[in-house]
UniProtKB/TrEMBL annotation:
The modification N6-(pyridoxal phosphate)lysine is found at K666. It comes from the Bacteria. This is Alpha-1,4 glucan phosphorylase. One of its GO terms (molecular function) is pyridoxal phosphate binding. One of its GO terms (biological process) is glycogen catabolic process. Belongs to the glycogen phosphorylase family. The gene is glgP1. GO terms for cellular component: cytoplasm. Signal peptide: none annotated. SUPFAM superfamilies: UDP-Glycosyltransferase/glycogen phosphorylase. Keywords: Allosteric enzyme, Carbohydrate metabolism, Glycosyltransferase, Pyridoxal phosphate, Transferase. Phosphorylase is an important allosteric enzyme in carbohydrate metabolism. Enzymes from different sources differ in their regulatory mechanisms and in their natural substrates. However, all known phosphorylases share catalytic and structural properties.
Amino acid sequence: MTGQLSPSVFAQAKTASGFRDAILFYLRAHLARTPKGASLRDWWMATALAVRDRIVERLLRTQDAYKRRRVRSLYYLSMEYFPGKLLKSYLASEGLLETAAEALETLGLDLDRLSEEERDMGLGNGGLGRLAWCLMESLATLGYPAIGYGIYYEFGAFRQRFENGHQIEEPDEWRERGDPWTILRPSRSHKVPLYGRLEQGQQTRNSRWVHTKEIIGIGHDLPVPGHRNPTVNFVRLWSSHPPEELDLEAFNQGGYFEAVREKTFCETISKILYPNDKTESGKELRLVQQYFFVSCSLQDILRRFRRLHEEWEVLPDVATIQLNDTHPALAVAELMRLLVDREGVSWEKAWQITTRTFAYTNHTLLPEALEKWSVPLFEKVLPRHLEIIYEINHHFLQEVEKRWPGVVERKRNLSLIEEGSPKMVRMAHLAVLGSFAVNGVSALHSRLLCDRLFRDFHLMFPERFHNKTNGISPRSWLLLANPPLAKVITAAIGDRWVHDLEELRQLEGLLEDPGFQEAFWKAKEQNKKELAKLIGRLCGVRVDEHATVDVQIKRIHEYKRQHLNLLHIVALYRKLLENPDYLPHPVLILFAGKAAPGYEIAKCIIKAIHAVAHKIERDPRVREKLRVVFLPDYGVSLAQKIIPAAEISEQISTAGREASGTGNMKLALNGAVTLGTWDGANIEIAEEVGQENLFLFGLRAERIAELIQEGYSPWDVYGKNPPLREALDWLTLSPDFLPGEPADRLVPLRETLLEKGDPFFVMADFDAYAQTREEAFRVYVDRKSWITKSLLHVARIGKFSSDRTVQEYVQHIWRLRPVSLSALRT
């Protein structure tokens, strides 16, 4: 049956034969291909369209129910969403994974192989985007009304490859094979003004923004289905376009390039995720990009509001707008502009509405990640918004003066404008001031927000501050990522854990069950074999599939301290040369992660890791005991292959610098034992799993603060610690690791650790790290002891489900009610 199937008929089909017919229908009717002439990419696209058909039916019914019931909704503003590959995820949400696999098998196709044709969606780059997608998936699974907003990037951040150990960035053309998931919504378009100038009114707040350049934002909806329930929410992503595709008059007069110049500028805005902001033009593009995104989103939110409501005062009663980090903080000024300038709402009423509608999640304590924009740039791009921010600041500082009369330092700390040359607009301050709730993402992080980063704001508005520890989706990060382990768990305790991760506590009762222990161990061994094949395919390196798998997979950054890991590898190398039996069991140390294109020290760390890996690989004296591999182009789908095989989870960031981390949760959920510092959510994982089941080390945040006050000297540590000194000197001063290359290639790494003061306390934590890690290697050979630690990581990780995170947001900030749609099941 080909080319004859109605999509509406397929919406009712759940059998393998029905799914097979649907695939053939889309292959012929939508792709104009016959089975004989179809490529693997064609089969993937047809299968994707077949499952999307069912999801769209649920989407339409869900949104109709929300509208009819006039529900309170969450609007989630995030510059990133990072779902990875969606085919299996969508099939699982529909309960069709086995059905689809069977249908494809009758066509001579394999679902796993077909899934490889899909590219990770280039809508995010790291933890921020992975968290955003987990929260959106949990919201839908729990039945809460929510819409995400973001940008429909043409290119992701970049694709990473290595050339002689150097990171090479290439365009991430993630849509080159097509995008079957998003739904174009040309009727959902909005005009966004930029540049121009102000015409002053009688009061500053009444200025008119004139002679602006306009950009059009067009929506693309990405469905977010709940797992095995009728709810389907969506993320609306904006692509940028010119008001007119072609300046015909200029073209007819021979100005061919001028005719498309405006089009090129407008389309650049949604071209790439995080353009490099090392240049002034890069900074300007980022600011334009962020404003484009928040303006389209807010206009859309207000449009939706006016369909059902007339009085602006009720907006906070029916909506919460969540700012995911500082990137969308411009939304505070933009909502004021829309309410005051476009809707004629008084300033006082508009500010009251604004501060009752927004909530803000902070994701970092690092000063460089708390966005600031120069006043001259702001005035050039968004003159009206700068004026609005100054007006907000004026009234706010009057309140500060009433609270702390004559205390200039308080005003300086709290002001939205940082004095200097040039003056800077503090976006985190704007987000805090414009929101009714501010939260960190782990207990330690939230405490440090109140005690340090936003101390004066907390003194002034203590009721605004909350903690919402991050979480991960058990569907994405165990059920789909690790089928061998998921099957072992389900066979032992049933499948309720998929929707209630606390059900994994039942596994504690199986700690002494030899049969379960063996099944648990075999699942890990199976995953390690698959990882060994992947390493061979991607890196051309043959590794021992029985070695201890020690992984550090995350963005390359000094505070995450990949160079601490590396220095210990070099020290281990030296010990193995002296004593080949020093390690009790072979160890595979695995890195994966990207460095920002302009972050030179991070790129130097990547080069150094490759140099050490290359030398060890070619040294027969040690390579059977120690291997180092750096996998390229880290993303969601690669993480879902590495994490199931991992046995040691490196979470070694400087205490007080990692807001939370979610990689630590994903690895723990899959049975990797945590080796980490007292930082971020590591602390809470230790509370749940038991400190005795983790390998924790290093300075705590309070001690680091004291060392900074006392005057920390890495040179003192260097002078008193021979193993550290010898490892650092060998790596950075000898030609052994980079023969034939410039002798100073790795000197920047040495400089940041010594001359520049070791800002992330790598030297100070080296001894504790080395001792703790080597203890972990020794414990690993005691199989029963290791299985106990590993199994307890899985059994006690239930708190870190994104379902729990969402429920806490709902209870304390979002005030949503689940919408029962059971009658909508198809």
